[in-house]
Automatic annotation (TrEMBL):
The keyword Transmembrane helix applies. This is Ca2+:H+ antiporter. It comes from Micromonospora palomenae. Keywords: Membrane, Transmembrane, Transmembrane helix. It is a multi-pass membrane protein.
Amino acid sequence: MIALIRSRLTNWTVFIPILAVVLLVLTWGRDLSGVAVALVAAFLAGAVLAAVHHAEVVAHKVGEPYGSLVLAVAVTVIEVALIVTLMISGGEKTQSLARDTVFAAVMITCNGILGLSLLIGALRRRVAVFNSEGTGGALATVATLATLSLVVPSFTTSRPGPEFSPDQLAFAAVASLALYGLFVMVQTGRHRDYFLPVTSAGRLLDGDGDAHADPPSTRTALASLGLLLVSLVAVVGLAKTVSPAIEAGVAAANLPQAFVGVVIALLVLLPETLAAARAARRDRVQISLNLALGSAMASIGLTIPAIALASIWLEGPLLLGLGGTQLALLALTAVTGVLTVVPGRATVLQGGVHLVLLAAFVFLAASP
């Protein structure tokens, strides 16, 4: 028993999240020196790695597709809290923060995480294999959510500029929640097998597909779930703590204000990116795609309703509609995603195409 307690206490995945939260409390709301920013960044990286570890423990216990759902929802809930907090304290410059962050999350997940997963899977097995029925349904849901929430506001006429009227915002919020809830029911219920990993021969792998390791105990899984939430709080909180330094760096580099949202989204989505890459290396590409598209879906389906509710107290307009360049990138992402998903098989070419789309998004965000 003493050896078990000692091993738990010396396990870095246990004490790093706790120390990161302590550091978050000590640095919250303070001006940080260069040394303090470096320390926060180091613990931020450690919290990201710890979050990935604990997410994999939980995923192994509950099986797929529940495991990928846990990480996607946990990250998104805390991301929503971060957006609302920044909008409340940021004033006029944050009127488009929700749009910029959600769009960045969609591009990072649907091009970055998805493309990286396909590339790793294809390099490992020559061809990355996944379930086209489940992945196609997820992509269709993401495209619908993105269009209703980020595209339609640019074309409505009730309000000047790319914003919804209160009634339109309420409809978009209810529709987003309904679609996300329906998808979760399908993913975890009657069509759960559409989201399970498959072999190159098309055979389903139930659970997490790992036949060489016993699932962790319930006690271990619950401990990892708690530490996962602690890690995610640390990730998002420390990302907010270093955001002034990021904003100063963006301003010094003469980059647009919207690029801050891109940097924050990249930091917040690191746990899902690393978890998806690990799953792809284990030839579980479907789990990686569940993470990518599930995160994009949760980012829209949970953020828009939360922002709609918060807009009651927020001052100023809520700008949700995308600009011309962003609309073109979103349309290209949707078309490319469909062509990638329909066959249920992908090579390094498809992975490379999506990664190039991500690079184009980041470049055009920096140089619009």
